[in-house]
Amino acid sequence: METQEISTQRTPKPKWLRVKLPTGKKYTELRGVVDKYNLHTICTSGSCPNMGECWGEGTATFMILGNICTRSCGFCGVKTGRPETVDWDEPEKVARSIKLMKIKHAVITSVDRDDLKDMGSIIWAETVKAIRRMSPETTLETLIPDFQGVERNINRIIEANPEIVSHNMETVRRLTREVRIQAKYDRSLAVLKYLKEQGINRTKSGIMLGLGEKEEEVIQTLKDLREAKLDVVTIGQYLQPSKQHLPVKEFITPEQFKKYETIGLELGFRHVESGALVRSSYKAWKHLT
Prior knowledge:
By secondary structure, the chain is an alpha/beta fold. The chain is about 40% helix and about 15% strand. Helix 5 runs parallel beside helix 6 (about 120-135) and helix 10 (about 215-225) packs parallel to helix 11 (about 255-265). The protein is globular and about 45 Å long.
């Protein structure tokens, strides 16, 4: 396994994965505010390839509930372990950051907090409420964990009523146990279906490619998501965070990504973002329509 991982790391990335450095007046302004006030965004900490484009549109992504996750997914670079104590002032801090940055559309995400009785859902709801109070014009997407499928926790998000609620499938059914370990394919589908049934206007999910999935499995996942009445899907290339994580089995071509986009639109999704550099919040501001 180690030999495979090392050889994968040495495999040169194809030209379509080259990233342009972020530029533009709006990006420069936001970068200045983030640095001045020491604000935390996933965009900067995760070195997102789309940061310049998103910030130029007034969109940014924030992670709540700490940076240590209770789950140990094989694809994710976030630390696993015993999370820190919940910061009950965090909703106000995040809302203040969004106000200072003059964010038009904010994406909120979090680590999994299976250590908490409410799995972090109370902080989630309070964060949405705080942003609404401080920046009532800012629209919101909440990229939530599965909350172990517990409806009372999911209901807190529904009651807070963000414009978009997102939960990522990450991969196809066959690879879920290997890629997501503590997660379950059908449970994630059930969460997305429940959100729609309870009146959420726009639901969204994302998958990564290059982990060894087959074309027919990707298409079946898209069909499963449409069966759950999903509105928006993002499809991107998996990149290995470190040698300890799952290796990249394949770099998907732009032509294949385009094929999945066409299939997704034919299946009835309102929006399909499909490309090597696509991430969960890519073009998130467009998914409101």
